Automatic annotation (TrEMBL):
Ranges for region Disordered: 340-362
Keywords: 4Fe-4S, Iron, Iron-sulfur, Metal-binding, S-adenosyl-L-methionine
Entry-linked PANTHER family: 2-IMINOACETATE SYNTHASE, THIAZOLE BIOSYNTHESIS PROTEIN
GO molecular function, one term: 4 iron, 4 sulfur cluster binding
Taxonomic placement: Bacteria, Pseudomonadati, Thermodesulfobacteriota, Desulfovibrionia, Desulfovibrionales
Transmembrane segments: none
Positions in coiled-coil regions: none
Protein name: [FeFe] hydrogenase H-cluster radical SAM maturase HydG
Sequence ranges assigned to domain Biotin and thiamin synthesis-associated in this UniProt record: 275-383
């Protein structure tokens, strides 16, 4: 029985409710009056229910779809401006006891090199990332009780925050590790993590159990209720995601939004981010073996629907996506992208080792961070290395309140310019620096408040003198 606030996975992701939603969406895919009504509600920028958003996703009327894209773009500009926050994944260990059939780290894969970073190796990885200009990381590790226990993850977080190399610093560490206990989430919170990210992979319970035939991850309820435990452990920024291609995308989309509604209903705060990975080729994995792969157009439509359904939730795409796909979806509401990612353990310190054979998946966008930064600016976006909210304690509902009142735009924009200026001073190639300086001059004039603008100018002068870490 569907119950949005229930603590039980099978009640807040009720299969019958998902199926009824899909029937409803199919039945109204050409219902112009209803589609207009939903688009009008979306234009209020207060979000949509999973049923409403699913109708938009199923829409078969081209003019309504065009309207959806226009609205997604406008909402993205209203809530996030033209900035794109940059981050990099950092793989700590690919030891894993699970058996996810779509992931090369699965326990039975014998042709992949197993690795776990020592603290000395981690230091080298982080310095390599700092030398590129990264300030925000997403830690990744397989699930392994003896190789990657929570103590190891905590030690790594501590090491990362402690590394100061030239002007570099990692200012926000997000963590993507296996579902765990409230107690361990509390330890992660105390270690100062930013967002706790856990992809659901698929919300379809039967498929989930088939795709995870063994290991602790096999337990659907344990995995699906992880965000509830994280919140009870004091982590109020959580990141959802599904791996598109495993199950039907419309099922995943409806359930993903039901999960977001559940967090809002049960804890008063929705997800901080939603990630939209698609299944990719990797060692021992062939995406063609999964019948539910989605084409680029469907992917773009999903991004647009997420943007209008949960306007306050950041949306993340990774280097799994090609430059062309990224260009297509950035204006539709993506707020964070990774740059120059390595998906192997130790891959930043040893770039000449082309992913060795320990990579989790093939990366489609192989450009350097500097190339990505220059490309974003050429496309009219502001690459941002901002981590201010987290460090000012603006997380969870406080962050949401700020976002919902649109006040966030008063600090995101100048913060993006300040952190970009740091990047340009410390890491950029001459051409990128020139491009960036012109962009900052132009974008400064768009800061509405005189006081904020003047302060931003003063901070920029400080950065030029070698000072760092200004923020609003
Ligand atoms: Fe392990 Fe995660 Fe890969 Fe599953 S997806 S095999 S849990 S690393
Ligand atoms: Fe993100 Fe906050 Fe920085 Fe805005 S000010 S970019 S919301 S960290």
């Amino acid at each position: 029985m569907y119950d949005v606030a229930s603590p039980h996975a099978e009640e807040f992701i009720d299969h019958a409710e998902v199926m009824a939603t899909l029937d409803h969406a199919r039945a109204h895919a050409r219902d112009a009056a209803l589609l207009d009504e939903i688009l009008a509600r979306a234009a209020l920028r207060k979000g949509l229910t999973h049923r409403e958003a699913s109708v938009l996703l199923a829409c078969e009327l081209p003019e309504k779809t065009a309207e959806l894209y226009r609205l997604a773009h406008q909402i993205k500009l209203d809530f996030y401006g033209n900035r794109i926050v940059m981050f990099a994944p950092l793989y700590l260990s690919n030891y894993c006891v699970n058996s996810c059939v779509y992931c090369p780290y699965h326990a039975k894969n014998r042709h992949i090199a197993r690795k776990k970073l020592t603290q000395a190796e981690l230091r080298r990885e982080v310095i390599a990332l700092q030398d590129m200009g990264h300030k925000r990381l997403a830690l990744e590790a397989g699930e392994h009780p003896t190789q990657n226990p929570i103590e190891y993850i905590l030690e790594c977080i501590d090491t990362i925050y402690g590394i100061r190399h030239k002007n570099g610093a990692i200012r926000r560490v997000n963590v993507n590790i296996a579902a765990t206990t409230v107690e361990e989430y509390r330890l992660l919170r105390q270690a100062g993590i930013g967002t706790y990210i856990l992809f659901q992979e698929t919300y379809h319970k039967e498929s989930y159990e088939k795709l995870h035939p063994a290991g602790p991850k096999h337990d659907y309820a344990w995995h699906t209720e992880a965000m509830d435990r994280a919140m009870r452990g004091g982590i109020d920024d959580v990141g959802l995601g599904v791996l598109f291609g495993l199950e039907s995308y419309s099922y995943e989309f409806a359930a993903l939004l039901m999960h977001a509604e559940h967090l809002e209903a049960a804890f008063g705060v929705g997800p901080h981010t939603i990630s939209v990975p698609r299944i990719k080729r990797a060692d021992d994995i062939d995406p063609a073996a999964f019948a539910n792969g989605i084409d680029d157009e469907t992917f773009a439509r999903i991004c647009a629907c997420i943007r209008v359904a949960v306007p306050y939730t950041g949306m993340i795409i990774s280097t799994r996506e090609s430059q062309a796909v990224r260009e297509r979806v950035l204006p539709l509401g993506v707020s964070q992208i990774s740059g120059a990612s390595r998906t192997s353990v130790g891959g930043y310190d040893r770039p000449e080792d082309p992913e060795e054979n320990s990579a989790q998946f093939d990366v489609s966008d192989r450009r350097s961070l500097d190339e990505v930064v220059a490309w974003l600016m050429e496309q009219g976006h502001i690459p941002s290395f901002c981590t201010a909210c987290y460090r000012e304690g603006r997380t969870g509902d406080r962050f949401m309140a700020l976002c919902k009142s649109r006040q966030i735009l008063n600090c995101c924009h100048p913060n993006a310019l300040l952190t970009l200026a740091e990047y340009l001073e410390d890491y950029a190639a001459p051409g990128t620096r020139e491009l960036g300086r012109r962009l900052i001059e132009r974008e400064l004039t768009r800061i509405p408040g005189n006081k904020v603008r003047e302060r931003a100018r003063a901070y920029l002068e400080g950065i030029a003198r070698g000072e760092r870490d200004f923020r609003f």
